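Notes, p. 3: input format for complexes.
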Amino acid sequence: MEVVNLTHLDEQISKQPHIMAIGFFDGVHLGHQELLNHAKELAKKQNVLFTVMTFSPHPNEVLKGDTDHKYLMTLPEKKKKMKAMGVDKLFIMEFDRTFASLLPADFIQKYILNSNTRHVVVGFDFTFGFKAQGNTQLLRMQSKKSGFGLSVIPKKTYMEEKISSTLIRGLVQEGDIDLVPYYLGSNYEVNVNILQYKINRNVVVQPNDKSIFPSHGSYIVKVNHGTKISYGKFHRRPDSNDDNILEFMDPVHEYGDICSIEFISKAEVTESLSVSN
Ligand SMILES: Cc1cc2nc3c(=O)[nH]c(=O)nc-3n(C[C@H](O)[C@H](O)[C@H](O)COP(=O)(O)O)c2cc1C
Ligand SMILES: Nc1ncnc2c1ncn2[C@@H]1O[C@H](COP(=O)(O)OP(=O)(O)OP(=O)(O)O)[C@@H](O)[C@H]1O
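Output follows (277 residues plus flavin mononucleotide):
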């Protein structure tokens, strides 16, 4: 997969014909996966590239000053997932105020018509352009007028609720991680830094400050550490300043290491933890 970092100054983003899915896609949940698979199938049938346009940072960080915006995945994790979804080219548009002020018609002209975009794939609630004025109706009108293809993916739901990144972020934050796979399609996974050793099998871990940790409690986790997979327990203390303790079954690790934790289910706390060095 080729990754292309863009700014609003870039003109034509592709010379080659391509089918482009557009959206932020935090977490690449089951709704996103349906959309991406649709785009992939179309691209295969038409023998053109399957591309995705995403944005960085999240529009809310730039437009609403939400500098503490939390993500289900970091940009490197999103790249990895997009590659696994079969994306040929990932466009990462720097989302800044200049780009945000682009009118919907100008977005269509520049990134669809002038960029050899044969077909666009978005979800039912996709918005774009200045003050989010562009929507699927406008895209539909323009696609008929200008001759590019358009697929609008209907709302994918679970238990009558729209599967959304916001909903999944809420589930993780509330510690309802058993429900997460029904929306995300997999367990919630987060990369952590191993900060220091504690006695026994315990280490202190810290996520990237943009990532989410579940609310306080104990969880059964799968730890992916290099090529090693082990199981353990993760304990989040009530106070956010307290250490987050991870107990590995097989604690072969070094200070400064990064490992990923997959949250499987809530655990009963059966013993008090050793937290002193
Ligand atoms: C060219 C462009 C300009 C945008 N300008 C705004 C804006 O002024 N205000 C806003 O709230 N969102 C704006 N957005 C963000 C979109 O409303 C939307 O969040 C983004 O396209 C990602 O789509 P998704 O949230 O469906 O994934 C803009 C998006 C694009 C592509
Ligand atoms: N449940 C869903 N069913 C169909 N399409 C979806 C669904 N969720 C998102 N999409 C589409 O996927 C693309 C990316 O959407 P976006 O990143 O805004 O996801 P989201 O889950 O709605 O995020 P958030 O909750 O942060 O608004 C958009 O084109 C959007 O319309």
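The pocket of adenosine-5'-triphosphate (ligand 2) is lined by residues 22-26, 31-32, 35, 122-126, 153, 155-156, 162-166 (CB under 6 Å).
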